[in-house]
Amino acid sequence: MHLLVRFLLIVAAAGAPGCSLKQMAVNTVADTLSETGTTFTSDEDIKLVGDAIPFALKLYETLLESAPRHQGLLLSTCSGFTQYAYAYVETEAEALPASRRAEIREAQDRALRLYLRARRYCFRAMDVRFGATTSEALLLNPEMVAARAKAADVPLLYWTAASWGAAISLGIDRPDLAIDLPTVRVLGERALALDEKWSKGTLHELFITLDSLPDELGGSRARAREHFAKAVELQGGLSPGPYVALATGVAVPSQDRGEFERLLKTALAIDPEKDPASRLVTLVMQKRARLLLDRVDEKFTK
Amino acid sequence: MFRHSLLSLAILALVAPGAAAQTTIRVATVAPVNSSYHKAMLDMGAEWEAKTSGRVKLTVYAGGTQGSEEATLRMMRPGVDQLQGGLLMLPGLSSIDDGFSVFGIPFLFASDAEAKHVLERMGPMMEKRMEARGFKVLAWGSAGWVQLFSKNPLNTLADIKTAKIFTTQGDDRMVQWYKQNGFRPVPLNSGDIPAQLKLPNGMIDAAPMPPYAASLLQVHRDAKYMLDVDFAPLFGALVMTNSAWNKLSAEDKAAVAAAAKSAEKRLLGEAVQLDTNSIAAMKTRGLTVNTPDAKALAAFRAEADRLVATIRGTLVPADIYDAIVRERDAYRKTKKP
Hints:
heterodimer; A: mainly alpha; B: alpha/beta; 50% helix; disordered N terminus
């Protein structure tokens, strides 16, 4: 409600003659919105949050029209679209039975569009942070761009990599997208070097997935296991994410059904109340773990 | 209420035997998850299920999770039966029937249209040969055209002969053919290509591969040149074991075959666009494409035709070679390549 009042004030200010007053109000709300803390991630009601996020995202976009260079809000919008696409669009598509292909394809196409939309906001944040043509330079020389990042830029590096990587995963049949897979790794490696403990080991979780790729794409199952151990250590074993990532990334290609089931059962045994700030994330990942266990025969032939 | 439930159970018991006759066909492919090939197969599977009222289902194990094509063929053997089918490319198909190796011979075909015409004409004969070896071909597919990527510009066959060129490990006859014709083949595991190209003095400095794979593997970062001459098509086929096929009713066979033929349009047709898009993407990241002029291309083709003739009866059974060349030459007489 607090945010809504502020928003209404902005809408009212939009019609007022004092342009600078309006800009100040916009920036104030943008600052607040870009620091939403755990309002969403601590919720226990997956559906409630899923219904609320689209409104919040449109609110962010509305504000960005008035504050197009607000780096914090650009980053929040990028992360918001990425998380919504993963938790509510791509995961929902995965939950549908294979016979409902048209709906699956429609949802996956939508998730891809949302990831790309997220990436555009991260690109804009990059351009604000590092200079006007940074996002173009990122395509040609990602190492040079990443080298300019400092510890405070880790969230921007991570969300750019996460939105980009998720888009490539769904759009692997689009060479214009897939060709930039190494850039995702470059951004992740720079973030990891700057602050490996950021967000309770989220970067190590990202690298479980990246290192689960085939060797010729830069992956290494041994390294994926090292990142898994580090992520679990940093999270105190309270997040299902690393278990789900290792199960799908390493146990499936190794065709180790026993390990796959052990990892997912461990993920499901985690008590969401032990990390209240991440309650929703835990519930979403457990939903995915349950789905994967239910369909174990679609991953293993014996 | 109680009686109503009993009645329902009785009805269920009557229909259960027919309803339980459900078959799941498990198919493996090395095509990546979410690739166009994977999507085409999943769409086909949904059609199988819909058109057979749920009697035939498909599970696709994509991304090479079941290992190499050789490994997946072992899993299809009678008695093992962990898999009932596969989307196989040349290595798998050639191990079932030597005749397929003809499609991997460099420079045999001059264009996609020419190669597909020959495949269409030869298809029924190849399908019969496969059936005799225990496999039903459901659909043909293509992973595009192999192109030559190199660290230095290569414009002629003479240039290519100077390059240390990758060839698949284990195919000794192909290595011998290359050597006898003046090339410098280096047999390697295909997974080693990117790393070897990255080295300043690696074991290879040129690798034939489809552009889509080259872009995914970032080959263009080290092998910055591509010769714009179609090297060889990369045909494949979606096959099902005869034992699984023969368990289906005639009605279900018709539905499964029809959906597979529909999927074939995508499995065969989308690769060319994928190649084009991949080359365009790599060009924006520094790839240089060398396109020979008409005179150079004609010289290239004349020399290539002479080389290709040397495979008859050695790399490819003579009868298959003769039939394919007959079809190819007949096509060339009617159309421009």
